[in-house]
Design goal:
Elements: H1 7-10, H2 22-33, H3 35-43, H4 47-61, E1 73-75, E2 81-84, H5 94-97, H6 101-132, H7 137-163, E3 171-177, E4 182-185, E5 190-199, E6 203-208, E7 211-212, E8 222-227, E9 230-235, E10 244-252, E11 255-266, H8 279-285, E12 291-292, E13 297-298, E14 300-304, E15 310-313, E16 318-327, E17 336-341, E18 344-345, E19 352-356, E20 360-365, E21 374-382, E22 385-396, E23 410-415, E24 421-427, E25 439-446, E26 452-454, E27 464-468, E28 475-484, E29 487-488, E30 498-499, E31 509-512, E32 519-521, E33 536-543, E34 548-553, E35 563-570, E36 577-578, E37 589-592, E38 600-609, E39 612-613, E40 623-624, E41 638-644, E42 647-652, E43 661-670, E44 677-678, E45 688-691, E46 699-708, E47 711-712, E48 722-723, E49 741-748, E50 753-758, E51 768-779, E52 782-783, E53 787-788, E54 798-801, E55 809-818, E56 821-822, E57 832-833, E58 846-851, E59 858-863, E60 875-882, E61 891-892, E62 902-905, E63 913-922, E64 925-926, E65 936-937, E66 948-951, E67 957-962, E68 972-976, E69 979-980, E70 987-992, E71 995-1000, E72 1009-1015, ...
Helix pairs in contact: 4-6, 6-7
């Protein structure tokens, strides 16, 4: 089973002896090296001495008789004995020290032997003397005395070593030699060094002006070394910035001590101080660099066959090596070889082994873990200096036992070891196995055993955990495992052992119990019978979602065997609960678990002893359980740059506001694959990392995550894709900035010039961090060599180049730099002559910038001239022209000089591109114009928003600016009067997402001005707001209303009556929270819920009401509702006195009676009437609470109206219809509903005015039913008419002509025919043209129908009238046969036939008779007559059969023709049928 365990579980013991002091390590090392020389030396001693010593050594001192006899003589490099070595070690057994059995025994033996060796040597000499002088009594006495002395010395030495252990040697750091101050010249090196003693070995940190020095932050600038308690700080190439006070701090568990030294750096100006030699003198008088006086030579060191970047996997063994060549080669001289990992010196241990063969230095990592990843450096030190070589070692994760399980955590460290717990911290792995890590399990193993015990039942997410349940005085090692949903990771490398005991107990530590690893502690002499006092200074030192750590100071009087009880209390309750009921804690620290996340707790501590339990301490502030440390924000922009054909340099912007940052993990993926692999398995601290092991020619993208104890951040945005190839020929496109341009001179004096330039058009892959300026002389048109003007970059786009030569021509070039590197230089500037300006006018302004660009305006900013001229600048002029226009198109924007360094330019043309320039003015005149701006397009970009002012509910006044086009690097930059705000006392800036808010802390007249906001890393998103004095007053008024708010009311206090006559007082608030309160006041007395008053407060709707059953005389007065909601208040009152109260009281009583009435059949709606469109009058009333037995009776003037078809009762309605109403229908109508429960009556008076109102309603319905007036032509004239649905004789109608009533005459008449109302105009003329109207009177406004009888309408009607008139005349005067002719005449043959008919017509018609369609002529047989123009006769004197046929008469005049027909049938007398005459 053990075969499946990881290596570090099989071999759990920790062999690393790095915790020992360097003196001890050196002593043991020298002891081991000198063992062979001591063996040779011992051979030269006498055989008797050797035999005696060997027997004594084997029988009493050496547990390993077969080992070579070790030596305990300390020798120098020339093998000269300089003394004995007494090694200092931690404990007597492996349980305490962590050493193996053989090492422990050997060290124990060595310490005893070294103490006794001198004593045994003198004993042997006495034995020799005894053998040579047997007869000497003096010798015997001397031998006896020496033996007694020897026994005493051995006993004293043993007692000394029993007391001798590292804890007895613990003391605070002390400076044996303090650093001294130095004054040096610029570009010289200076070394500060000191010697520190103390145990445990102090940790030494160097500070510059109280800021810790990190050699990695500026490689090559600082070198910090620590060796054998000698610590040094070397500062290379000092400059003025290195002038400072330097502090070295030494700290261990017993305390901290500091020492100070000052460094002053001076610049050589050609005059030398007397007490310091000049730099040239120093160089002349000094020896060659690296000169070794001892040998008279200078060593040259070369490192060849160097180790390269290496890759390993956890569990493997890796060796790094290089060959060292030192010239000249001295046989006896050995260099000192040091190995470093991430600039920390490595010492041989279980995990690290070093070897020096004389020409090759080797470092072996016996069992790789991710802790071994880092930058490895080998340093070869000679007396002439040192040479070094570095390369990175990457350690990949070993294969997980379960597929998908996370990688192992790393860097497990113990903190705050005390009696009750030890806090363990670790770093999260870079690989989570494909699913998020759910948490971590912490295991412990007691030193001396192999059994690992899991410390937490549930995984903890925070990379820090207090382990409790430890045995006081015992030592433990710890490891951590990560877990996700797929499974468990491999365990991490075990931590260094830590003892479960308080540091304060170490001073009182007594005898060791060697076989258990337990340390027996002797307490101070207790004071009996004293109850402990209160503990003090209780604080929460650490808090996460899983645990809270408390710390306090012991009470001043703690009595015998003081221990502590911890109590907790949930905020909002008064219940204190003891946490550690069963086992009180011994140390003044405690870790609490099982707290509810999100709840707030308070804590306190009681001290107890055998005399009792003391008073509790002061409780802590309320603490909400949760992680106080937030996960870091995602790192900023990631910029890759080519390095070699297998590596890429990745730079990124640090996480913002990250707390306790551990480092960063970098991940890479082939472009487009989205398969991410870690580039490092150990977090890196900086913001730049070289990713090795990439495939040449492939294209990669990178991303970065930050990590702290709370977890890993979100991934940064992916970098640009980059192809892996050597950087020769350039890095990735646009990684570094493009060159600046537009170099100009702002000021010139005798030995310096001020330059300005414009920002590059493209800033590259990251923000520009600064600029570098170069210059060169130009003599006779021939340029010289370029020189650096500034070593450190400048952030401004203006720089003074000093130390120039007067009247010499110069050229300049500028380079921009970002985190990806320094860009290419700009094109060399024009040639400028370095001569002092003497002109009176100022120099040109510079650094012009256009902000708040809109379609018709923008704001132009600039910086003042560097050269002021003879007088101060008092104003500026702004010029403008179209970008494509000629130079002559420049024109001024402002006629008067602008005193500010900004100006709003208005009246721009949308879509036009402009350029601007600025000129400065002083009393002497106007300067030359500045360099023009880049072209600016006058357009409002989509999504542009203006700045707005806001006053929130708390009355806080703020300005808000929003931007939708943010990038991860964007920042909101606020300015007042276009100068960046630095005084945070006036305003507070809050930014969240795409919205930034500038809050006025205490707004007053000092805040009047123009506020603007610029969003960086956008296309110029900016806006402004001008705060005037009037605007400020208005805002302060609104703010006051918000600070001292009132509860808004939808309705004021009102009163209404409810069912049964109840009186309801109520109001409604617009908005009120659940915390709102109401007081009900009557005549200044608060009333409450009871029999008389019923209160209700609906906080959802804001309705507040108070209900009274009835009103009495005592209820007259003032009613008030007082509202309060937080700090908002309001009240509303209602006065009920006098007539108002009496009216309400009366109405309440009436309502109560109404309720009683409605208990039986009753009228819901009393009797009323309506008129239907058919002009039927319908009396109606609505009844309720009816049943089958209920009856309804109608009455008119007291007489019952018999039930007939007009009486209806359905769906609660009663109807009585009156058709064709007239005066006889006037009267008083009454309806009664009743049953056994009661009756109710409804009356309607339709007499006098009531009847008039009814008839008016009838008239209104008639009027509304009228059709529009129409025009009709007749033979008499023109008729206007309208139709109504029903006509009543009582209807009043008036005809109007041109808005005046018409006076009727024989020519103009009106009348009614059925439902038609008409107006007849006989023989109309032109005078009759105009507007006509008919007006129906309904007792109110009446209704008019109008028609316009004019224009074409009149012409058409008149023409039709004429036509009809003519037709009527023609009809009257045309020829007609009026009658007298039969249809058929049957006559007997021989008889006479006489027919006569009336003829009319004017003129008199012509008469023609026809027989069988042939005209007849009057003769004797046919007598045809026409007399008096009226009578036509037809006579047949004697009828015969030939007269049978069809006859007709035809009358004709100019108006027409008409005919009459008849048939004559002649029969013989013998026929049976008598004659028949058929008349028409």
């Amino acid at each position: 089973m053990s075969g499946s365990l990881p290596f570090y579980q099989k071999h759990h013991r920790h062999y690393d002896r790095g915790y020992r002091s360097r003196e001890t390590q050196s002593a043991i090392s020298q002891y081991q090296q000198s063992s062979s020389s001591y063996s040779a030396h011992s051979k030269s001693s006498s055989k008797g001495l050797a035999a005696t010593f060997s027997a004594l050594d084997e029988s009493r001192l050496s547990p390993l008789p077969k080992r070579a006899k070790p030596t305990y003589l300390a020798m120098d490099k020339e093998n000269q004995i300089i003394g004995y070595v007494v090694p200092i070690f931690r404990g007597s057994q492996e349980y305490a020290s962590g050493l193996s059995d053989t090492e422990e025994a050997r060290l124990k033996e060595s310490s005893g032997y070294m103490a006794r060796r001198g004593l045994f040597t003198s004993g042997v000499e006495m034995e020799r003397s005894e053998r040579s002088e047997h007869t000497s009594r003096r010798a015997v006495m001397r031998e006896s005395a020496e033996r007694i002395s020897l026994t005493k010395r051995i006993h004293e030495n043993e007692e000394y070593h029993k007391r001798m252990n590292e804890d007895n040697l613990m003391h605070t750091p002390e400076f044996v030699i303090k650093p001294r101050s130095h004054t040096v010249w610029e570009k010289q090196c200076v070394r500060l060094h000191c010697t520190v003693s103390g145990w445990p070995e102090p940790r030494v940190v160097w500070y510059k002006n109280n800021v810790s020095i990190d050699p990695m932050s500026d490689p090559g600038k600082y070198k910090v070394e620590s060796k054998y308690n000698v610590h040094s700080l070397e500062i290379n190439r000092c400059d003025f910035d290195d002038t400072a006070q330097y502090r070295v701090s030494a700290m261990n568990s017993k305390g901290e001590l500091s020492a100070f030294a000052s460094v002053v750096v001076k610049r050589f100006k050609g005059e030398f101080e007397e007490d310091l030699p000049t730099p040239s003198q120093q160089k002349a008088n000094s020896e060659p660099d690296g000169w070794v006086c001892e040998y008279g030579i200078t060593f040259e060191t070369h490192i060849v066959d160097k180790f390269d970047v290496s890759f390993g996997r956890e569990g493997e063994t890796m060796s790094l090596g290089c060959t060292v060549i030192i010239y000249p080669s001295l046989q006896r001289y050995k260099p000192e070889i040091e190995w470093y990992r991430d600039d920390k010196l490595l010492t041989p241990s279980k995990w690290v082994q070093t070897h020096w063969s004389g020409e090759r230095a080797t470092l072996t990592l016996t069992h790789l873990n991710k802790e071994d990843e880092g930058l490895y450096t080998v340093r070869v030190i000679t007396k002439s200096g040192y040479e070094s070589h570095s390369a990175y070692v990457f350690v990949r994760d070993s294969d997980a036992e379960v597929e998908g399980a996370p990688a192992a955590p790393l860097d497990v460290v113990c903190h705050e070891a005390n009696k009750d717990y030890i806090i363990i911290s670790w770093k999260q792995p870079a690989v989570d196995g494909g699913s998020p890590i759910m948490g971590y399990f912490v295991d412990r193993c007691e030193v001396g055993t192999t059994h690992w015990i899991q410390c937490n039942d549930t995984p903890v997410k925070f990379a820090r955990f207090p382990v409790t349940g430890l045995v006081e005085g015992r030592s433990y090692s710890f490891r951590v495992r990560a877990v996700n949903k797929a499974g468990m990771s491999h365990p991490s490398r075990a931590s260094l052992p830590a003892a479960a005991m308080d540091p304060s107990d170490r001073a009182r530590k007594g005898t060791s119990a060697p076989w258990t690893g337990q340390i027996i502690v002797t307490e101070e002499e207790p004071s009996e019978g004293v109850v402990p006092s209160k503990p003090c200074d209780l604080t929460i030192t650490e808090a996460t979602r899983n645990y809270v750590v408390l710390s306090w100071k012991p009470p001043s009087e703690k009595g015998e065997g003081a221990m502590y009880y911890v109590e907790k209390c949930i905020v909002g309750t008064d219940s204190w609960q003891r946490v550690n009921t069963e086992i009180p804690v011994k140390s003044p620290r405690f870790a609490l678990f099982d707290l509810a996340e999100g709840k707030a707790y308070m804590f306190r501590v009681r001290a107890c002893n055998s005399a009792g339990v003391g008073e509790p301490s002061e409780h802590t502030e309320a603490t909400t359980v949760g992680d106080k440390l937030d996960i870091p924000s995602a790192p900023g922009r990631v910029v890759p740059t080519r390095n070699t054909d297998t590596s890429i340099v990745v730079s990124w912007e640090a996480s913002k506001n990250a707390k306790e940052l551990v480092g960063y993990y970098i991940e890479a993926s082939l472009a487009g694959k989205n398969v991410w692999e870690p580039c490092n398995n150990k977090p890196v601290k900086g913001t730049r990392f070289i990713c090795h092991g990439l495939t040449t020619g492939e294209t990669y993208v990178f991303r970065v995550r930050a990590v702290n104890a709370a977890g890993l951040s979100e991934c940064s945005q992916e970098s640009e894709a980059i192809e892996v190839k050597a950087a020769i020929g350039g890095g990735i496109p646009h990684a570094s900035p493009a060159p600046p341009f537009g170099i100009c001179v702002l000021e010139c004096v005798r030995d310096s010039m001020v330059l300005a330039w414009k920002q590059p058009a493209f800033i590259g892959g990251a923000d520009i961090t600064g600029y570098f300026v170069d210059y060169r002389e130009v003599n006779g048109g021939v340029p010289g060599k370029w020189h650096e003007a500034n070593i450190k970059s400048v952030s401004e786009r203006a720089y003074r180049v000093s130390d120039l030569k007067e009247n010499v021509n110069y050229q300049f070039q500028v380079r921009a730099a970002n985190m990806a590197g320094v860009g290419i230089p700009s094109i060399p500037s024009e040639v400028f002559k370095c001569e002092e300006w003497t002109i009176a006018v100022p120099g040109p302004p510079h650094d012009l910038q256009a902000l708040e660009v809109r379609k018709t305006s923008l704001v132009l900013l600039w910086k003042p001239p560097v050269y002021q001229g003879r007088d101060e600048v008092n104003g500026y002029y702004v010029d403008i022209k179209e970008a494509e226009a000629d130079f002559e198109a420049w024109r001024g924007v402002n006629e008067k000089a602008c005193p500010n360094r900004y100006l709003k330019v208005s009246n721009l043309k949308e879509g036009e591109t402009y350029v601007f320039r600025v000129r400065a003015q002083n009393k002497a005149g106007v300067s030359k114009p500045s360099e023009p701006t880049e072209p600016v397009l006058a357009v409002t970009k989509p999504g542009t928003k203006d700045m707005v002012v806001d006053v929130d509910d708390d009355g806080v006044i703020s300005l808000i600016f929003e931007c939708d086009s943010l990038t991860p690097d964007s920042q909101f930059i606020w300015s007042k009067n276009y100068e960046e705000m630095t005084d945070t006392s006036r305003m507070t800036i809050e930014t969240k997402g795409g919205k930034s808010r500038a809050i006025f802390n205490n707004p007053d007249v000092e805040d009047i001005g123009i506020y603007s906001c610029l969003v960086s890393h956008t296309d110029g998103s900016s806006g402004s707001y001008t705060l005037t004095e009037e605007g400020l007053k208005e805002l302060l008024k609104i703010s006051h209303d918000h600070k001292f708010p009132i509860i808004p009311l939808k309705t004021e206090l009102a009163v209404e009556l409810q069912e049964k006559g109840k009186v309801r007082f109520w109001l409604q608030a617009e908005k009120i929270t659940a915390n709102g309160k109401v007081e009900y006041v009557f005549n200044d007395n608060v009333v409450s819920q009871g029999e008389k008053y019923k209160m209700n407060f609906d906080k959802n709707t804001g309705v507040i009401e108070m209900v009274m059953e009835s009103l009495g005389d005592q209820d007259e007065g003032t009613y008030t509702f007082q509202l309060q909601d937080g700090k908002a208040k309001n009240q509303s009152s209602l006065v009920l006195i006098g007539d108002v109260f009496q009216k309400l009281k009366k109405e309440s009583e009436f309502q109560r009676k109404e309720w009683i009435r409605k208990q039986g059949p009753h009228f819901v709606e009393y009797m009323s009437y309506e008129v239907t469109p058919e002009c039927i009058v319908r009396l109606k009333c609505k009844v309720g609470n009816m049943k089958k037995e209920s009856v309804a009776l109608w009455y008119k003037d007291g007489r019952e109206v018999q039930a007939n078809e007009k009486l209806d009762f359905s769906e609660g309605w009663l109807h009585l219809e009156i058709a064709q109403i007239s005066k006889k229908d006037a009267g008083v109508y009454e309806v009664i509903v009743k049953d056994d429960r009661g009756k109710d009556t409804s009356t309607l008076n339709l007499t006098d005015q009531g009847f008039k109102d009814l008839m008016n309603e009838v008239f209104r319905v008639i009027a509304n039913s009228s059709t529009p007036l129409k025009i009709q032509s007749t033979e008499e004239g023109i008729r206007l008419y309208t139709f109504v649905n029903y006509y009543n004789d009582e209807l009043h109608v008036t005809w109007h002509y041109k808005d005046a009533p018409i006076s009727f005459s024989d020519r103009i008449k009106s009348g009614v025919v059925g439902e038609q109302l008409w107006l007849q105009i006989t023989e109309p003329t032109e005078k009759d043209k105009g507007k006509y109207a008919i007006e129906f009177f309904d007792g109110k406004g009446g209704l008019q129908r109008t028609v316009e009888l004019s224009g074409q309408a009149f012409d058409d009607a008149y023409a039709e009238f004429q036509r009809l008139k003519a037709a009527a005349i023609a009809e009257r005067n045309r020829a007609r046969v009026a009658g007298g002719l039969p249809d058929v005449v049957t006559i007997q043959e021989g008889k006479a036939l006489n027919l006569t008919c009336n003829i009319s017509g004017d003129p008199v018609p012509e008469v023609t008779w026809l027989k069988n369609e042939r005209e007849m002529v009057s003769d004797d047989h046919y007598i045809l007559k026409f007399e008096s123009g009226k009578f036509a006769s037809f006579t047949i004197s004697q009828v015969n059969t030939a007269d049978s046929g069809k006859y007709s008469i035809l009358v004709k005049n100019k108006y027409g023709t008409e005919s009459g027909e008849f048939t004559v049938s002649v029969f013989i007398p013998d026929e049976a049928n008598p004659p028949v005459v058929k008349r028409k």
